[in-house]
Every structure is written in C-alpha cells, then in structure tokens.
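Q: How would the structure tokens look for this protein?
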Amino acid sequence: MKKAYVFPGQGSQYTGMAKDLYTNSIAARDLLERANEILGFRITDIMFEGSAEDLKQTRVTQPAIFIHSVALARCLPDFNPDMTAGHSLGEFSALAASGAISYEEGLRLVAIRAQAMQKACTAAEGTMAAILALPGNKVEEICAEINGIVVAANYNCDGQIVISGEKTAVEEACIRLKEAGARRTLPLQVSGAFHSPMMEPARAELAQAIEKAAFNVPICPVYQNVTAKPTTSPEEIKANLLAQLTSPVRWTQTIINMEKDGAGHFIETGPGKVLQGLISKTAGKDSIIEGFQTI
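A: Here is the predicted structure in token form.
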C-alpha cells in the first residue's frame, strides 16, 4: 500500500498553528525563524497569537500554511512519500516537501504569489461560491451561459464544486445552478476570484519569479492541480505551477488517480483537517485517511 502525503490550502489556518512544532522541535524552530528572516516580519507571532482576522490577510495566510506544512513534513520521523499533492497553495508545500524546490525558494515564491493575488483581488471585484450536489458538467454548462466571468474553480469531491469569477456573474450563476437542482449554493468569504481568468495579472507577476527559481527532480511523483497527473519533470512542474493560478484545482481527479497508482494511505500534513474530509468522499472505503498537525 503506497503512502500519499497531501498538503492543505488557504482556509486551514488557525490561531496557534505550528506553535507546538516550534516548542517541541529545534529543527522546526530553525525553519520558522528562517521564515521570519526571509519575509522580513515575525510571521510566527501572528501564527501563534494573532486573531482569525490577522491570519486572514493573504500576505500572512499563504506563507503561514506553507511554513507549518513543510516544517511538519521535515520533522516527521517516517516521512517517506510514494507520492505527494497539495490543494492550491498546498501544491507549493508538496513541492518543497518532496525536494522539487527548497524551503527558502518555496517560501519566497509563496510570498510573491500571495502579494500578486492580493493585487489582482483589489483590481477587480471577484468572489467564489460552493455548489453542492450538482454534476461538474452541469456546473460548467451553466457557467458558460452566464454573461461575465464565472468558471468552475475547485473540483473538491463528488458533489462539491467551487465556482469563481466576477461577483455579479457568480451571483447569477448561483441562482441558475439552484434552479438546475443544486442542493445548496454557498458564497465563500474570500477576497477574490481565485483559479479563474481574473487572476491573470497575478499569473504574469508570478511567471518571472518561477522562471528565476531553481527546481529539482523530486524524490517522488507530484500530482499537480492543473492535470491531476504525476510528474517529476522540473520544467513540467514549473509550467503547471504557473498555470494553476488561472486554472481549476482538479482535486477529485487527483485522488482518483493516486488510488489508481496504488495509494491506499492518505496523510494530510499541515494545519486543519479539510483534505481528510474531502478525500473520505472520494477514496475507496478501504483507504486509510489520517492527518498530522504537529509531531
């Protein structure tokens, strides 16, 4: 039975995250202090003691989750993945944990990504909404009929798809999707239209940073969001990582493909338990699904 280590994305942050790691592990403390130096402010203070509102700031949220996830992976005594994947932001954690990119380089890219996405969010009003109990092809079909930008952004699990785009277009799509049989449409408390064409300005900014960064062959295949397929090619990893900003997160297909390739033990590594819940709705009933937030 192969082990698949998976890494969470934005929304998994919580006050006190990684504090146990910092206290209990010298290696983790070194990584967290290095993050403070790289970022130029004490993000650990916000992670340990900041309010939920403080942690919601994009410049804090994305680096904080990356730092927690990668530091934890580095400290787990038996971290030896057969494959890895990460949900959205978590893909950077998966790449750093598997050696495709260094911790330092990954953190710099995440910080640039966060700032670029925040700029794109302030440039145009966008939002996202979760659509429950409607097939993906129906969601795509209705989104395509709406006047304005609205697309399927996250294929999280069977029966849960997130749409993203211009605020008015998303609102109209929610009405149409409910009429088409969606059990619920839930507006998300996010600052912009992630994984949609509205992130194109951020994509252009991130491209320069990714091109300059040093990527390596990882220790195991990484299943990337854009294709849901495994790769160990540095050039392919770079291209997919960039495309991810404006493309959907194919998480359901990622888990299905991991299972087809032998994964039977899924381990969420980082803050929160969101991925464990999503995987339980997709993976086979005999799969082992667990998570670690600290050592």
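The mean pLDDT is 96.

The chain has two domains: 2-122+197-292, 125-187.

Upvote if useful.
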